[in-house]
Amino acid sequence: MKAKKIRRRYLVFKIIGPSLTKEKTEKILKETLFKLYGLKGVLEASPTLIYFDPSRQGGIISCTHNTVTYVRAALSWAPPIASLQNTMFYTVKVTGTIKKAKKILSSLQQVVTLNKV
Please, which residues have CB within 8 angstroms of residue 76's CB and are 6 or more apart in sequence? Predict the structure, then answer.
């Protein structure tokens, strides 16, 4: 009997607020997923931050097709759980291919940061 292929989904997300790095974003996502769903939820979802664009403050997260709702919930609950002030994560679109996800991410506006003097 053939093993079933794991179907992946790609979530395009955007961050509104202070700029974050790829490492910090991935850490926040996994910690939030762990606090909401435990180790089983993290292992089922197997979230991976595939791509992060610091200029757009957006990225692409890969997860299994059954756990898209887990990852979306973790994204929306990330700022309060990680104690981030004035920050919001939101899902722009869920796609089935990386190519389409990158196209959507590239169409997002770049974030303009102003230096405070």
Answer: 89, 90, 91
